[in-house]
Structure prediction request, 222 residues.
Amino acid sequence: ETGVTQSPTHLIKTRGQQVTLRCSSQSGHNTVSWYQQALGQGPQFIFQYYREEENGRGNFPPRFSGLQFPNYSSELNVNALELDDSALYLCASSSFSGSSYEQFFGPGTRLTVL
Amino acid sequence: AQRVTQPEKLLSVFKGAPVELKCNYSYSGSPELFWYVQYSRQRLQLLLRHISRESIKGFTADLNKGETSFHLKKPFAQEEDSAMYYCALKKAGNMLTFGGGTRLMVKP
Prediction:
């Protein structure tokens, strides 16, 4: 059983550019959540995908968008990058259930916007 | 709106001393709370959840609805407990709201 993987590990972009981050969920998981973690802060929820549809969204603008594929892997896209988008982006997978559950996190992608 | 507050950014204790990492929350519904931990150069992982009422690595946490708190405790800290600890609140749809985190340093 493989854990959650994310690519790339690091990324440097300039303001105004677009970026795509990728996540492969853990085997057997059908739900992927994305978080933004700025330096010195806790992770902030961006959105969640369940069975290829957005299942909830945090307080992030529409230029943050995502996709989930039939194999439950996922992408996070950010358009018109701003300096404040510099952060660690975490992906977490889980098995959607009405009862308590656990999210399994990937190692993150460090995005730097210059 | 739901909110999780961890008032201490850094907590430093000596090995063998008791540890309490504070977490307060605000949530209008029935809360479900978790503690996540991140050891150096490792990914974020679940430490414990309140509904399990379990002790993991000697840590326990009790949900106090009257005080809206979910403090993490351990009677005798070990050096390997040094890590970042995050308190998290789950809302509908299995989405987590995290606190700002507390760095625990256990000195020899």
